[in-house]
Structures are given as C-alpha cells and as structure tokens.
Amino acid sequence: NAGVTQTPKFQVLKTGQSMTLQCAQDMNHNSMYWYRQDPGMGLRLIYYSASEGTTDKGEVPNGYNVSRLNKREFSLRLESAAPSQTSVYFCASRVKQRGGSEQYFGPGTRLTVT
Amino acid sequence: AQRVTQPEKLLSVFKGAPVELKCNYSYSGSPELFWYVQYSRQRLQLLLRHISRESIKGFTADLNKGETSFHLKKPFAQEEDSAMYYCALMDAGGTSYGKLTFGQGTILTVHP
C-alpha cells in the first residue's frame, strides 16, 4: 500500500495563477481532509470530505475549492493564488476503528506564491 | 469552539533527561485526544491516542479532564526523539466526521 500520496511535492506560483493539488489514498477510507501547516499556527483544516460525494468547509476555506472525485481522490484547487497561501499542504484520510480513529497523512506539498 | 494550546514552541533537553510536552485543551463535549509526531522531512504520524492508553517509543500521555490537559511524557529522552510534536483534539461525537483541531506544535530537540 502506498498509503496517502500527494502531487506535486513542491510548487512555485505567481500571484493570480491557479493550480490543483492532488491527493489519493489506497486504504479504502471514507473520510479525507486538507490541512495547511504554517509556523506557529499548527495545522488548520481547509476542507474535508466525510464520504464520497460530500465536501464541507473547515476552519480556513477562503481562496480554496475541493473536489472529491471518487473514494480514492480528493483534490484542492487554488483559483487565484495569493502570497498568504504560501504554506505546506497536507492531505489526510481517516480510518475509524474499534479503539478509536486515526488519520493518515500524505508527505505534503510545499507551495510558494510570489 | 474547541481549542488546543501547546505553550512551548521549542523544548531542549539532554539525552537521558525526562521530557514533558504540555498540551491543554478547551472543549465542552466529549473529546478524543491525540499526539502526532513529525520527524525531519517526514510526514505526520500518530504517536498516541488517549483512548488506547498505550506507551509508544517510551512516551505516555494521560488525559486529565479536571485540568483539561493531555501532556506527553518520556522518562529518558533519546536523540531520535528530536521532532515536531502536535497535540490534536477530535470531537468524539458522531457529527464531527473525524475533524482534528491541532495545537501550534512543539519542536523537541534532544542534545547528546
């Protein structure tokens, strides 16, 4: 199992450009999440998808859109990138077990907007 | 609203010394608490969850509902413990869909 994969690993954008961050998981998990990681702020939830066909806003959704293409894939789109969106983006998927739940994270995408 | 606070941004100890990473939370419901760790250039991975009451890599954490804390402890730190540690909270109720609220993170450095 590859677990949670993300592409690209690194990206530099100019202000106003658009791009899509891709995420896929091969663990048959229902729920998937997008977080951004900023120094001193921890990880903050951008959007999540509780199950295939549903998406909902998290704590910091402004400037982003998402698509849950199928059970495996959950993409994050920046329509018009801004310097404030410079961050490391993590995708995660969740398994619910008898002993509780656990989120599995991807390796991250480091995005710089100039 | 739920909130997780990790008061120490940086923590340095020497190898073999005890270490405690603090985590306080505010939440009125039924929380599930986690510690995640991120080693250099690696992805976040789950270290502990309070429900399991287990010890992983020598780390333990006890949920103290009276003090609303979930501090992470290890009696003898090792150099390989150097990493970023995040405390996280999830609403254990059915409508949370597993969303996590993270603290700001603590960078632990263990010196030889």
Give an account of the 3D structure.
The complex is a heterodimer of chains A (114) and B (112). Chain A is mainly beta and 114 residues long. In chain A, 0% of the residues lie in helices and 57% in strands. In chain A, a hairpin with a 3-residue loop joins strand 4 (31-38) and strand 5. Chain B is globular, with a radius of gyration of 14 Å. The termini of chain B are far apart. In chain B, the strands form three sheets. In chain B, strands 2, 5, 6, 9, 10 and 11 form a six-stranded mixed beta sheet that branches. In chain B, strands 3-8-7 form a three-stranded antiparallel beta sheet, with no helix packed on it. A two-stranded antiparallel ribbon of chain B has the order 1-4. Chain B has strands spanning 3-5, 10-14, 19-21, 24-26, 31-38, 45-49, 60-61, 72-74, 83-91, 100-102, 106-111. The model of chain B has no long low-confidence stretch (mean pLDDT 91). Helices cover 0% and strands 45% of the residues of chain B. Chain B has 112 residues and is mostly beta strands. Chain A binds chain B through residues 4, 31, 33, 35, 40-45, 48, 50, 56, 58-59, 90, 92, 94, 96, 99-103, 105-108, and chain B through 4, 6, 9, 32, 42-46, 49, 51-52, 86, 88, 90, 97-105.
Short description:
The complex is a heterodimer of chains A (114) and B (112). Chain A has 114 residues and is mainly beta.
Order of H and E elements of chain B: EEEEEEEEEEE
Which regions of chain B contain 5 or more consecutive residues with pLDDT less than 50? none
Continuous helix count of chain B: 0
* Structural class assignment of chain B: mainly beta
Q: Give me the Rg of chain A, rounded.
A: 14 Å
Q: What is the beta-strand fraction of chain A?
A: over 45%
Assembly state here? Answer: heterodimer
Distance between the termini of chain A: 36 Å
Helix content of chain B: under 10%
Task: Find the structural class of chain A using helix and strand composition.
Answer: mainly beta
Helix fraction of chain A?
Answer: under 10%
Record field, number of beta strands of chain B: 11
- Largest interface, counted by CB within 8 Å of the partner chain's CB: A-B, 28 and 24 residues
For the secondary structure, the number of strands of chain A is 11
Main sheet of chain A, how many strands, which sense, barrel?
7 strands, mixed
Helix-strand topology string of chain A: EEEEEEEEEEE
Distance between the termini of chain B: 41 Å
Tell me, rounded to a whole number, the average pLDDT of chain B: 91
Rounded to the nearest angstrom, the radius of gyration of chain B is 14 Å
